[in-house]
UniProtKB/TrEMBL annotation:
<protein>
    <recommendedName>
        <fullName>2-oxo-4-hydroxy-4-carboxy-5-ureidoimidazoline decarboxylase</fullName>
        <ecNumber>4.1.1.97</ecNumber>
    </recommendedName>
</protein>
<feature type="domain" description="Oxo-4-hydroxy-4-carboxy-5-ureidoimidazoline decarboxylase">
    <location>
        <begin position="14"/>
        <end position="166"/>
    </location>
</feature>
<dbReference type="GO" id="GO:0019628">
    <property type="term" value="P:urate catabolic process"/>
</dbReference>
<dbReference type="InterPro" id="IPR036778">
    <property type="entry name" value="OHCU_decarboxylase_sf"/>
</dbReference>
<keyword id="KW-0210">Decarboxylase</keyword>
<keyword id="KW-0456">Lyase</keyword>
<dbReference type="GO" id="GO:0006144">
    <property type="term" value="P:purine nucleobase metabolic process"/>
</dbReference>
<dbReference type="InterPro" id="IPR018020">
    <property type="entry name" value="OHCU_decarboxylase"/>
</dbReference>
<dbReference type="GO" id="GO:0000255">
    <property type="term" value="P:allantoin metabolic process"/>
</dbReference>
<keyword id="KW-0659">Purine metabolism</keyword>
<dbReference type="GO" id="GO:0051997">
    <property type="term" value="F:2-oxo-4-hydroxy-4-carboxy-5-ureidoimidazoline decarboxylase activity"/>
</dbReference>
<dbReference type="Pfam" id="PF09349">
    <property type="entry name" value="OHCU_decarbox"/>
</dbReference>
<comment type="pathway">
    <text>Purine metabolism; urate degradation; (S)-allantoin from urate: step 3/3.</text>
</comment>
<dbReference type="InterPro" id="IPR017580">
    <property type="entry name" value="OHCU_decarboxylase-1"/>
</dbReference>
Length: 171
């Protein structure tokens, strides 16, 4: 995947073969290159927003089981498990790499309660947030209904992936 230090243009994206497109954008939706593969047919894109909408639409219409696999592909926030470089950078920016042992235990407990209830990890676009915002958000959202939280998790994935595309592409 190309790094933000060497942004691509939409023109370059629109000229890519399907294989290049998936290799370049396959990580935008966490461990779900099928999203980029599905969005490829919507080329050419006139803006980063159009590209993002095509990818988001591919995720929305994929069917419940495939969408659940997308939700489950996201790492738990602040776990010390292996995460993708994009997720690690996003979590570090929110201070999740600097939790006290007590904060780590609290977030770990909230993550477990959340995952037990919804059967997928807590997903939040953490850019611009700090560890207190994140703990507050999971504390509130664990009390939502399954359908409300399904929709909220997909909304958050939309925010995360839009940030990632904007970082990757020069418009």
């Amino acid at each position: 995947m190309v790094t933000p230090a060497s942004p691509l243009t939409l023109s370059e994206i629109n000229k890519m073969s399907k294989e290049e497109f998936v290799a370049t954008l396959g990580g935008i939706f966490e461990h779900s290159p099928w999203v980029a593969e599905s969005a490829y047919a919507s080329r050419p894109f006139g803006s980063v927003g159009e590209l993002h909408e095509a990818m988001a639409e591919a995720a929305r219409i994929a069917g419940r089981e495939k969408t659940l696999s997308l939700l489950r592909a996201h790492p738990d926030l602040a776990t010390r498990l292996q995460v993708t470089p994009l997720s690690a950078a996003e979590q570090k920016g929110a201070g999740l790499d600097r939790l006290t042992p007590e904060e780590f235990e609290l977030l770990n407990d909230l993550n477990k309660k959340y995952t037990d209830k919804f059967q997928f990890p807590f997903i939040l676009a953490v850019r611009g947030k700090n560890k207190d915002d994140i703990i507050e958000s999971v504390s509130e959202r664990v009390n939502l209904s399954p359908e409300e939280e399904w929709n909220r998790a997909l909304f958050e994935i939309g925010k995360i992936t839009k940030f990632r595309l904007e970082d990757l592409l020069a418009e």
